[in-house]
User: What shape does this take?
Amino acid sequence: MPPARKKPRAYDAQRIRAAVTTQFGHVTDAVGELTPEQLARPAGLGVWTVGELAAHIAWIADSLAGGLERPPVEKATLSAVEWPFATAPMAGRIADAAGETLRGGPLPELYERAGDRMARALAEHRDGRVLDLWIGAMTLGDFLVTRTVELVVHTDDLNRAAGLAIPLERQALAACTRLLADALAYKAPGGSVEVRVPPFAVVQCVEGPRHTRGTPPNVVETDPLTWIRLATGRTGWAQEVEDARVRASGERADLSALLPLMG
Assistant: This one.
């Protein structure tokens, strides 16, 4: 009998909304200062430049508003924890959308329009509304949690590629960390390994002997950014273990076969 999956984590709706808008605002402030040389640098994401990555982040806000402007559907078919596994088939379509966004004008103007459009749309709709998206139907509340992942991951990408120091809003970082940790537990349900990402998440995963009390025999611990980079394929398990950013103990604590969760 396979391990039972836990009830989905609950998120504070107002905090998630504030986290999304605040993180987008941080990126908006930084993008306006990018030089032509920085915009032309490789983003470290396939063939994308920093300019194309920045356009993709503007598209994240614009597409959220676009989804809210379409007629709602009756029932959600995709939860937040399932979302990481539904994105891979859409990678090409999303990249094309980012390119189209970049052709829409200078980046500061794109960000201003996207931010205003997103703010208006969010003010008009509650979290229970079900959006008809490329990847499936999702409630607005669940979709907003996934937007913290997109914004945190790509802010980190932008920082590393362009040499920036855009801050990561704490609630956005927390939600991103928790969703990706829960996605690991969803992918590999069980209780033989405890994964700790302080101060935001602790999950048990991997089928096998279940820990009940005392110190777990199989423990993985790392910091939020390292975890996010591992979960999204920005870095590799072996390298992070070697560099001591991941501490793994126990014969079942090697998660390399389960990562990344999304790319």
Q: What stands out?
A: The chain has two domains: 13-172, 188-258. The longest strand covers residues 193-197. The beta strands are 130-133, 136-139, 193-197, 201-205, 219-222, 246-249.
